[in-house]
Each structure stands twice: as structure tokens, then as C-alpha cells.
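Contributing new records

If you add data, match the layout below exactly. Sequence lines come first and carry their own label; structure lines follow with theirs. Keep one chain per record. Anything else will be rejected by the validation script.
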Amino acid sequence: MSRLKRNEVNMRMKSVMLINWNIIIFVLVLALLLFRCESSRVGGRNENTQQIPPPPKLVEPEFSDVEMDVEITEEVVYEDFMVAEEVPMTKFNTEEYSYIKEHNFQLAFQEPKSTFSIDVDNASYSNLRRYLSYNQMPPKDAVRIEEMVNYFDYDYPNPNGDHPFEVVTEMSDCPWNSDNKLLHIGIQGKKLDYDEIKPSNLVFLIDVSGSMSDSNKLPLLKKSLKMLLKELQEDDKVSLVVYAGAAGVVLEPTSAKESEKIINALDRLEAGGSTAGGAGIQLAYDLAIEHLKPEGNNRVILATDGDFNVGNSSTGNLVRLIEEKRKSGVYLTICGFGMGNYKDGRMEEISNAGNGNYFYIDNIREAEKVFVTQMRANMFTIAKDVKIQVEFNPLKVKAYRLIGYENRVMDNQDFEDDTKDAGELGAGHTVTALYEIVTANGETESSQQTSRYVQTVTSDKAKSNELVTLNLRYKPIHSDKSELIVKHIKDKSIAWDKTSDNYKLSAAVAGFGMLLRESEFKNELNYDKIMAMVPAKESDHERSELLSLVKSAALLTAE
């Protein structure tokens, strides 16, 4: 081959190689662009999606070799799982919260009555604490102001009359709008006489699905229930029901004095599989009803992250199931655990339907509060279907706004209807509600008048010094007929510095919630004002923690 020919061949080979390299580079760039687009699409699926740090190192768990008898309704398959040394994180946050529309002002002349069910749940506060502890602002719909306010202890007088609770009221200038007033309503439940405590029939319904394997879920749950065992009496019975792909009875009703047997059963629980929550709830109620103590405390305690995904798992179906089961006299407590795929809205709805209460256990100290410090308030009900109806005097009140309780509002006609469900009050529980009030100064405006076809007559009662009439209905624990309490509240406002610690604390916590929700009614309120509002109290861990959370939120939102 001539030299000219060889040069021509070499040039053609170089051209082919150059084209091939260009093709390879083009394919790599195209693949990179497609990968970025897919990541962006996946990451944007959920409004609350957040990047979370990578998971910590995983270690093999250790289990006891103790054998136990297990009655299974269907075959239960437990898969192997790993336990995290620290609080685990998933790559994306798929937590779910129900939408909350904040109350607006109502004109008292047009709608003088405000009716709602009491709420003793406090899951929202410990959940938002978890967010702030990880330097994240909580989603707006994770903030339920009434649960924040009711998380704290208030020094209300213990009832000494015929009814199982005492009612107190207080009013001063609204701290976030000085033109308005803030009305504080407090309820104190009667504390238990420990000599008269009835035995308990407690069925623990434990989620052992794969989503519960993280260290802040099933392992923390076990520690929580072990603390509760120490608070029980020997006449109390404890049962364990588990559910994953199916449901099964792990421990038949056992005396609390056999704590070693109960603890061994707890220690044997492993996480794995899908989540058949509906089947577990059905089985737990069946077991509680079978061993019902007619004069005792009968309760199912559901511990889960709420991620039901097998069988009867829709929220609507679960609510209907719980509504049917509450007629049996068995109460419900829900304890939420974990993060990443936590289903808050679902658990709140189920709790509301089942004569229940709802807590979020974010750490061992919260477990101690729920299962030790406030165990009797949380586990022993003293009044059923407690409803509050506040009737405002339109000559004193131009408009009013209930702060929080958005998911607890009732139709006014339901107040006297004993078939309508409402919240339960536990022994020693406190319930606090706040109204922001626009005063009327004895006059009504044309915009508040009723229809041209309806003539309005102002009663002599309206011309009195009454601000509101507070009506409460409740059912005694073993009765289906409600009793009524009526209290007339005078138009009496005191200066802020003369108000009680109860008043200042509730206002500060409500204001904190308004800031976290970015409320349209917050006006010039800011985190510094909230910290100044919190009354000081020595050796009060919860108030110190509140101030720390307010400061964290201030730093996270600082520009």
C-alpha cells in the first residue's frame, strides 16, 4: 500500500473514532439530564416533601429466646429487619396532615352561639417539637392550636360539687390586638380517689409492620409500655395484639403482676411486612369486649405510625369501624410514633371517632409523661361526650373568633342531641379554650341586622352586664343521658399584669401556634413578644422547653 493510501485510511479511522467519542459524550449528557429531571419530578410530588439526612449505621437486633403461645387469626409473616442506633431518617418525607381552615370572626348578632366538642389530645405539640428539634419548621396543618394549649398543666381549682369538673373564666386585652379582648375558659376534671380505682382491661394493639422497625418506633414503643406496666395494679389485665400482614393475639389477658411474662412477650416482637390495621383493630376490640369489666376501665391502646395499607385500610372505613365499636363501652387511646411516613390526620380522625385520646410519642420523656405522670388522666374517663356552647350577648360582643378547635366544631342543634358524639374528659384532665372578642359597646350596627322579613327584639337579658352564657353538657360515665351546666359570665376585663399564670400561659401558647401557622390574625405578634408573655415558674421543664422551641422557630424564620 502506498504512503498516500495509508494516510487516507488513517484519516478515515480518526474521523470514525472522533464521531464515536462525540456519540458517547452526547449519550452521557442526555442520561444525566434525564436523571436530574426524574429526581426533580419525584422530589416534587408532595407539598411537604423535605430532604432528610442519610440514615445512620444499622445494627442487628438481639431477641430473647423465650417461647410464647401465639393465637393467629391468619398466618402472620414477620420478615427480618434492622434497628437503627440513632433516630432514623428516610430519604423523603411522606407525612400526611389534614387540612385546617382557621376560624374567622363571626358576627354575634347573626350567629350568637358557638358550639364545639372538648379536646384533650396534645399530639400536635410533641409533633411540632420534633420538627423544631431537627431544625425544621412544622407544616402549617401539623399545628393544631387547641392541642398545643392543652399540652400544658394549668392550676385550676379541683371540683367540689355534684359535677365531675369545675369551670373558670378570665378576660383581658388580647395580646396580639389591643383593640380586642381575649376570653379564657378553663375546665378542671375531678381527680381520682385511688382507693376507689376500678380494675382495668387494657388491650395493647401494636403495629409490627416493616415501617415500625426504626428505633423511634417499635423500640421506643416497647420502652413506653414497660413504663406503663409499673403503674398498673395486680387486678389490672393486659393483653397484646399485633398486626402486620395479618393480625394475631400474642398475649391473652394477663394480670399486671405477671410483669415478667408481659415484658417477655413485648421483647419478642419484631417488625416486618405490610400493615393490616383494620384487621388488628377488629381483633383488639373483640378481645376487649370478650373480657369486658362492666364497672371497670376498658380500653384499646393502639400504637402505630398510622401507615395502614392492607385490607380495610381507608380512613373512612376505619372511622366507621371505630364508631361502631365505641358502643361497646371500650375506649380508645392512640399513640403515634416515628417520622418520615407518619399519618397524623388519619390517627386524629380515628381517635375522634372512638371515644378516645391521641398522643404523639417523640422521645422517652414524652412517654414518661403519657404513661406515668398523667397515666390516670389519660386512661380513666370521668365524663363522656362533653360539649361546650358559648352564647354571646350582641350588645356586648360585636364579633368573636374561637382559636383552634377547627376539627371539633359542632352544629348548634347538636348541643342538646345526646346521640351526637363529643370528647371525653379524663380524671384530673384540664381543657382550655380561648375566644378573641371584638366588643360592641352596647350598640349594634346595621350590617349586623337580620333579614327584612324578620323583626329583631333585644331582650332585657341582653341589656344586663352579661358578656356570655356558658353552657356545658356531659354524660356521666355509665349513662347515656346528658346533664347540663349553665354559667353566666359578667363583662369584666382585668389588666394583663393582673391576669393569672394560667391566662398568660394559654395566651402565649396560642400566639405561638398562630405564628407557626402564619395566621392572618397575628397582627404585629412576633416570637420575642411570645417569649415575654410566658410566665416564669421555677423547675418547670415544660415552660423552659416552650421558650427553647419559640427561640428555635425565631432563628429558623429570621431573614
